[in-house]
């Protein structure tokens, strides 16, 4: 039963991660042309046998779930089937971390996610790339950057964000070099 609970938790995490995935440009174009209509639910009978097995604890209340929730959970179950054991373990770990967050932090994360989704695709990609670069830094360098950011006042942080947003690529490169020089690298 523990394995099934963990699988369900991971499927829910996958559903949440699917919502975080960038939309395809084809889907954006179709959505722009088609009039808005309510999302259709996913009948239990349309789930694959594997999805039904993973989602068995939802069977009794499946029809009462909102259509968007059914779709997200079904996509998560479908994605779960295609994941390697390592990916499944990572999804389980992330879901457990999510569950361990205080409600205020979860709410803040959801709000940030919604803000991110409202950004143009190019800006979303730029932020993903910046985050990838940040994650590739050595742990001590990441900690140094976090400390410097935390030492700033809210006004200094906003000023830094605004300066960065308005900078050209060349100016951003100069800012990076200046920052490296300031820390003695």
Description:
- There is one protein chain.
- This protein is an all-alpha fold.
- The protein has a domain at 1-100.
- 75% of the residues lie in helices and 0% in strands.
- It contains ten helices and no strands.
- It has helices at 2-20, 25-33, 49-54, 67-82, 85-100, 103-118, 121-136, 139-151, 154-166, 169-182.
- Helix 1 (2-20) crosses helix 4.
- The protein is elongated.
Unreliable stretches = 1-35
Q: Given the helix and strand composition, which structural class is it?
A: mainly alpha
Count of β-strands: 0
Shape: elongated
Mean pLDDT: 79
Query: Strand count, sense and closure of the main sheet?
Result: none
> How far is the N terminus from the C terminus?
53 Å
- Beta-strand fraction estimate: under 5%
Q: How do the SSEs run, as a string of H and E?
A: HHHHHHHHHH
- Give the C-alpha Rg: 21 Å
Proportion of residues in helical segments:
over 70%
**Count of runs of 4 or more consecutive helical residues:** 10
Q: Which descriptors apply to this entry?
A:
185 residues; disordered N terminus; mainly alpha
Quick overview:
The protein is an all-alpha fold and 185 residues long.
Compile the SSE list and pairings:
Layout: H1 2-20, H2 25-33, H3 49-54, H4 67-82, H5 85-100, H6 103-118, H7 121-136, H8 139-151, H9 154-166, H10 169-182
Helix pairs in contact: 1-4, 1-5
């Amino acid at each position: 039963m523990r394995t099934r609970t963990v699988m369900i938790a991971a499927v829910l995490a996958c559903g949440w991660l699917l919502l975080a995935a960038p939309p395809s440009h084809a889907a954006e174009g179709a959505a722009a042309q088609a009039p808005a209509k309510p999302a259709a639910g996913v009948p239990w009978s349309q789930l694959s046998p594997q999805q039904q097995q993973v989602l068995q604890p939802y069977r009794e209340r499946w029809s009462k779930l909102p259509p968007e929730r059914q779709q997200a959970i079904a996509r998560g179950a479908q994605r779960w089937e295609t994941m390697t054991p390592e990916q499944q373990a990572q999804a389980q770990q992330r879901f457990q971390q999510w569950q361990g967050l205080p409600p205020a932090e979860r709410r803040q994360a959801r709000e940030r996610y919604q803000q991110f989704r409202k950004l143009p695709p190019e800006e979303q990609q730029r932020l993903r790339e910046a985050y990838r670069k940040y994650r590739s830094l050595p742990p001590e360098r990441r900690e140094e950057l976090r400390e410097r950011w935390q030492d700033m006042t809210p006004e200094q942080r906003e000023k830094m964000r605004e300066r960065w947003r308005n900078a050209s690529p060349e100016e951003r490169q100069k800012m990076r070099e200046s920052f490296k020089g300031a820390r003695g690298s």
